[in-house]
Every structure is written in structure tokens, then in C-alpha cells.
Amino acid sequence: MDDYMILDAMCPGCFGTVLFVKERTSDLEFTLKKVECLDEGRANQAYQEAHCLLNVRHPNIVTYKKLFIFWDERVSSVFLSMVMDCPYMTTLSTVISYHRQEKKKINKKVIKTFLGQMVDALAYLHKRSIAHRNLKPSNILMTKEAKFVIFDFGTASITGDRVKLQKRVKDCAKRWMAPESLTHHQMPEKSDVWSLGCVLLDMLTCHMLDAEGSISQLLRIREDQTSLDVIVLKGLHQVLSMMLDRNPKTRTSVWELVNEDLVKQCLLLCGSPLHAMKKTLPPGVHGLPFHQGFDSVLEFMQTYRDVESVQMSALSYLLSEERNVFYRVTDVVIAVTTAMQSHMDCAGVQQNGCQVLHQRLIAEQAAREVLDLDGIREVLNTLRKFPEDCDIVVPCCKCLWSVLTQRICLGGVPLKDAVEAVCVAGEAHMQDSTVMESVCAALSSLTLQGLTEDQDIEDSTLLLMHALQAHLKHSYVVKYAFLALDSLVKSSELAAFRLLLTPDGGSGLVIVKEAELQHHDNPEIVGNFCSLLSAMARYGDVIPELVAEKIPDVLEQIERQFSSNKEIAQLAKHALHSTTSVGRVNMTSST
User: In the chain, what are the domain boundaries?
Assistant: First the structure.
């Protein structure tokens, strides 16, 4: 914060304070959002979630310049700061308040321009699996030329803070939030659609209702849609009914909105290419037949496989229908893989498709069908195409782990391709413990297949050591990294020698020891540690390094600590015996 001089501040919100600042080194002015976090861990998590905003480039979305975490000694709290462009624009909230006070309608063309620009902006975000999570008039800027700009995004770790959420729900700001956000603390992309519907309704009725009446209207809409009867503009009543469906499962997505005639007109008015890009349903066909049941949805999904909005809605539906999916495994896998093949450039389809496949992989029979129907090949294609998207990497890696842990080989999918894809994704998210947990789990299963290529062995070993170094305190990362390293060392001397060095040239054994020490009371991790050391001791040239780092002393301590746990004690004893016996043989030979 020392790099910035504060010029002005907006009223603090529940999730943070917006400041207008000047950068001291450049004299450039920016908007800075300062968000207080519960602790450093929550701040780091929020930083990771918000990092994708730095790559967002859209004319109706504010440009994020920098993110940083700092400790404020004055209040003894850690803050996430998000630096944005500083457009001198009024907020839509101010515009609505003015029209409300003057009892004046907002121009119809302005409303259509607003709807077109916002649908285009949300489509851009949702295609990249980014949700705004805090859409309301005070977070939408407006110029005199009727250009609207979204800013002040929320992140899951911040908006998921129950204390702050409860505080937020107590005030009138709750009227913009979707019903599921209030009851389950969930803010998916369809919650953005609900919030946009609330903003649009407020713009349409501000000349008729005072502030209290507006609050009552937006709260009442959660119970019934009778208040929409005042909307007389052609097509808007239907659009609002779709956006303000209280059931998120049947609520329209932004992609379904694109197919509505009125929205197409709005998109055309604001110059968005979306009005002509998306394949749409034929006239007279309106959305998926959820009311007709599971079989009808699957059939509809296959019939309109080229319509992206249909596939997005259908995949969301399949994720919520676990019981039915198990009875139609083959049909589901065919439908999902077809959707993924038909919409390779849509991150949302790929993400939801991988999640559905992962859910189905729980049962061995389903895993075999997913493999036989080329589901895993599609998962790898997705992983290679979207290695930077953590929401896609996690389910992809979990799919690989699920297949291989059921002792099912990858079939016709080259093992080398799978290892390479996982390693590339891992390097892209090395600081994200959730992603690295799934990456290490996938590698722990892939290495059991027996890697033969030196490059694969070297890349995997170095990645796992880097993961250990970055996430020593994360038990699942350590657990799966130890398992994968154990498999690699058992099959390759190269892995044993690569393990001796960290990615930055330090001692790999020091990192391994430190990881075990962090979880010395976890029998599973300690057992994996002992098994790894036994594998290392197979190679006589490694023994001097083990002895130099006092590995035998660590194993003796484990044997004493777990004397009542026969399995762990035996593993420690075997590892100790392997280390010392091989050491004695080497000493005798040299004598």
C-alpha cells in the first residue's frame, strides 16, 4: 500500500473498501479494492481465485492491473488488494436513484443497450468459468454515452465468509442476491443471471417505486413472479421470467438468453457478435424438457448436440441427477463425450463434462465404460487445451486418478501423453494446493503403470519435489507425492538420484524429511515415507546421502513412535534394515 496515495474513498461495503488512489512512481490514478481476510491462508486462497481477473479483457468489464496481499499493522489484519483502472464514471445505482426521485422512465434504448452489454460481458466471463458473485447497480458503472462497465468482483473464499455474508444479508443489499446464495452460500454463474434480472427489473420500475417499494419488489420476486406483470415492453416479461426463476436448475443460463429474440436485438444494438455466433434451437423449441424426466433430457441433449446452451444446461442437470445417471451409464458417457467433442473451445462444457465423468468413475463398471467410450481421451484433450484453468484441471486429474486406482489401464491412451498433460497443468498451478493435490493424486496412479521414458520420469520426479517444497503442510499433497515418488524410485534409478536434489539445487532429502516431520502423527504419510526410503536404499550409491542426512535416525524414531502399530513399525524396520544392510555391504566391498 505504500506505493499508492489515497485520493478518495467510497463507502465501505461488507466485502471491502473501494479507494481512489495515485501510484507514487507513475502518478497514474487507479481504483483499489481493499478486502480484509480472516487470515493469511484465506488471503492467499482469495489471491489465487482472483488471479484469473488479470487476464480479463472486455470493453464492458473493468481491467484489473495488479493483485497483492499486505499486512496492516494499524488494525492487525491481512488484506487482499485489487488494483483496477480508474474510469471516472457514475454508478448505475446513482442513475436509478435519480430517475426514481424524478419519477422518470429510463430510456428504452438505454435499457436495451444495458441488457445487450451485460449479457455479452457475462457470456465472456462464464465461458471462462468466472462468476462475478456480487452483481448489483453500485458495481456497474455508466457513461453518458450509455456504456456500462462491470467492476468489483467477488471471490468464493471472500463471499463464502459466513460472518460477512450474514452481515450482508441483514441489510438491503440482499435484494440482489439469488435465493440459493442466501440459503446455501453458493454463488454459481446462474446466480449472476438472477442478479442481472434484479438490476434490469429495478431499471424498468424505478419511475413507479420508491426505494422501499423497490426493496419489497425484489424480495417478493423470490416467492412469486406476479410483480412482473407491470412489465409491458415486448419480450422483456419472458426474459425476466427466465432470469428470475427461483430454481437455479431450471433458471436460464446466459447462453440460453442469447437465443431469445429480444436479447438478440439488444446484442445487435450494442455491436456484440454473440447475436450471430451461437447455434440456436429451432423456432417453437424452448429449452430442455426437465419436466419430462431424465430420459427426455438425454435425448434432447443428443438431438441438439450443436447448441452450446443446451449442452451447458444439460450437463448442469446431469451433475445434479446422480442416482439416475448410474442406471444409464453408457448413454450418459456417450452424451457427455459428444458434448465435449462438439464444443472443445467452451471451457464451461469441458469443465462440467469432466465433472460428470468423474462422478461416474466411482464404480468400476462405470470406469470401464468411460474408458471404452473414449471418455478419458476427451479428458486428456481438455486438460491439454485448458491447463491454465484450475476448475478444469482438478476434475480432469481426478478422472485419471479414479480410473487408475481401480486397476484399469488407460487402454489406447498413451501413458506418456497423460503424464505430460498432468505435469504441464501442475507447473501452471504450483502454488495452488487444491490443484496440486489432484495433480499429485493423478501422478501417484500414473506412476503405478510403470513409466519407461527418461523424460517422463525426470519431469514427474521434479514436479513432485517442487510440490512437496511448496506445500509441506498440506497432508494430501504430501501423501500422494510420497506415493508417486515411491513408485518412480522402485522402477527407476534415475528417479532416485533426481529425488536427491530439489528444483532449486538444494537437498531433496531435507525436503522429504521436513514433509514427514510436518505430518509425523499421520500413519498413512509415515508409512509412505518408510516405503519410499526402502525404495531409495535399493541403490547403493544413494546410501551415503541417506546416512549423511541421518535418515536411519529418523527411521529408528518412527519404529519407536509406532511400536503399537505393527504395520508402520514393520515398514520402518524394513526401511532401516535396507538402509543399514546395504550400507554395510558397500563398506565391506570398499574394504
Answer: 4-84, 90-274
425: Cα separation from own chain's centroid? 13
Single-letter amino acid, residue 277: M
C-alpha cell recorded at residue 50 = 482472483
User: Are both 4-84 and 90-274 of the same fold?
Assistant: no
Q: Which of 480, 392, 481, 397 is nearest to 438 (CA)?
A: 397
Per-residue pLDDT of the chain (591 residues; tens, 9 = 90+): 677 788 877 766 656 778 888 888 888 888 888 888 878 888 888 888 888 888 889 999 999 999 998 888 777 788 888 898 876 678 999 999 999 999 999 999 999 999 999 999 999 998 888 888 889 998 899 988 889 999 888 765 554 455 554 554 444 557 888 888 766 556 568 899 999 999 999 999 999 999 999 999 998 998 888 888 888 777 899 999 999 998 888 888 888 888 788 998 899 898 888 766 667 777 778 788 888 888 898 899 988 888 888 999 999 888 887 666 566 777 888 888 888 888 877 888 888 888 888 776 555 455 566 666 667 788 888 898 889 888 889 988 988 888 777 656 666 667 888 899 999 999 999 999 999 999 999 999 999 888 888 888 999 999 999 999 999 999 999 999 999 999 999 989 999 988 887 666 778 899 999 999 999 999 999 999 999 998 988 888 888 888 888 999 999 999 999 999 988 999 888 888 877 764 444 433 443
Give me 35's grid cell.
478486502
d(CA 402, CA 359): 9
Question: Cα separation of 244 and 220, whole Å?
Answer: 11
At 476 the three-state DSSP class reads helix
Query: How many C-beta atoms lie closer than 10 Å to residue 404's C-beta?
Result: 22
- Are the C-beta atoms of residues 510 and 549 closer than 8 Å to each other? yes
Q: In residues, how long is the chain?
A: 591
- Give CA–CA dist 139/172, Å, rounded: 15
The residues that bridge with 22 in the sheet, in sequence order, are 5, 29
3-state secondary structure of 533: helix
423: its cell numbers: 505435469
The x, y and z cell numbers of residue 463, run together, are: 514436479
Burial class (CB in 10 A: 0-12, 13-18, 19+), 421: buried
Half-sphere exposure (Cβ direction) of 416: Cα atoms closer than 13 Å: 5
Closest CA to 420 of 449, 398, 453, 390: 453
Beta carbons within 8 Å of 406's beta carbon, 6+ residues apart = 361, 364, 367
Residue with cell 532416485: 496
CA pair distance 528, 475, nearest whole angstrom: 12
Report the half-sphere exposure of 57 (CA within 13 A, side-chain side): 1
CB atoms within 10 A of CB 2: 6
Options 3.10.310.40, 3.30.70.330, 3.90.550.10, 3.30.200.20; CATH of 4-84: 3.30.200.20
| Burial degree of 16 (CB within 10 A; 0-12, 13-18, 19+) | buried
- What is the distance between the alpha carbons of residues 165 and 377, in angstroms, rounded to a whole number? 41
Amino acid at 445: S
User: What gap in Å lies between CA 476 and CA 251, rounded to an integer?
Assistant: 37
- Assess if CATH 1.10.510.10 describes domain 90-274: yes
